[in-house]
Amino acid sequence: MNGNIEGQWEISKLNSYEVVDPSSSSCDSNDHQVDQAHHNDVHVTSAEQMKTLLDHARKVIVDMREHIRRMEQIELRNSNGELPPYDQLVMRLEGLVTQQRIINAESARLMSVNYLVNIGNFARNRQFARIVAKGRYQMLLLQSTVQSLESNVDNLSSEVEVRKEQADYLAESLKNTQSLMESTLAEYRDELRRQDDELKRQQNAVAAMSKTRFNQDFVVDSAIFLFSLWAINTMIVDLPIRVATTAAIRTSNRRRAAALQGSKVLLLILMIWRLKSLAKGYGFHNSVGSFVPYVFSVALQLHHGITWTISTATHPFRPASLNA
């Protein structure tokens, strides 16, 4: 909340600042306003605060990886490939739900930190923009002074030496100002380059987070499918369906078998849809993965695997120039 208030105050200060003509009587007041705004920006763009936010973001990412690792260690089936008793299955599912809630909370914290870092970067950019504006104002002031001196050269021949010294002094000041602007622009470019690198790292982190959510949805959907497939083949579900189809269809065994399989498929679809809705309601399913993305992901993985296998198998038979 403090970061949001400071960012809004920073924007309002920047919008109220203008670069005016040197002949205006408000030049000194604008210069003082820029210095005051630069002084107030120290708390917003402090390097220590940015470092603290980045350290906190790294800690949140480490915690998220730890919770994801714990989720991967929770197995719904025993070593024999069978589901555990109902009580143990419920406890393991509760453990998965708890870990997912923790991961969601850590993700929200990471998004908050990312928002604050973006506000800090925005404030630093505007601070450099004010520095450039101040240098531009000083350049306009020096240009106006030089033009005034040039217009008075013919009328002040007796003061040529004095004016010459003043011109040398102004030229030196202009040179110093130009050097200051060049160094400021160099710092600004370095800062932009650093922010671009930081943005790329943040984009990689977001991509990794999206991939993690996709993999989690794949695991949840797979578990729901296997559980539903197992459930419809249990005696509790299979026996009533067989009795109903036998009572409804008495003439043909083939039609009875087709009706039995069709009922099971319909029940499987309804059970998967219901369990997936419950998983979304509890925050266990992120609604990122579905059947089509799963197919494309598996096809892409198979393509990479086949390409790597072919490349590895044909590597010894390549010419020496290609291997080099």
Overview of the molecule:
With 324 residues, the protein is an all-alpha fold. It has a domain at 2-215. It contains nine helices and no strands. Residues 139-212 form a coiled coil. Keywords: Coiled coil.
Distinctive features:
disordered N terminus; coiled coil; rod-shaped; 9 helices; 324 residues; mainly alpha
The helical percent reads over 70%
Count of alpha and pi helical runs = 9
> Which radius of gyration do the C-alpha atoms yield?
35 Å
> What's the β-strand tally?
0
Mean pLDDT: 74
Q: Please identify the structural class as seen in this structure.
A: mainly alpha
Tell me the distance between the termini.
Answer: 57 Å
The biggest beta sheet reads: none
The gross shape turns out to be rod-shaped
Spans of at least 5 consecutive residues whose pLDDT stays below 50 are 1-45
Q: Strand-residue fraction?
A: under 5%
How are helices and strands ordered from N to C? HHHHHHHHH
Summarize the structure.
Keywords: Coiled coil. This protein has 324 residues and is mostly helical.
Layout of secondary structure:
Layout: H1 2-15, H2 27-40, H3 47-73, H4 86-151, H5 160-232, H6 235-248, H7 253-281, H8 291-314, H9 320-323
Helix pairs in contact: 1-4, 3-4, 4-5, 5-7, 6-7
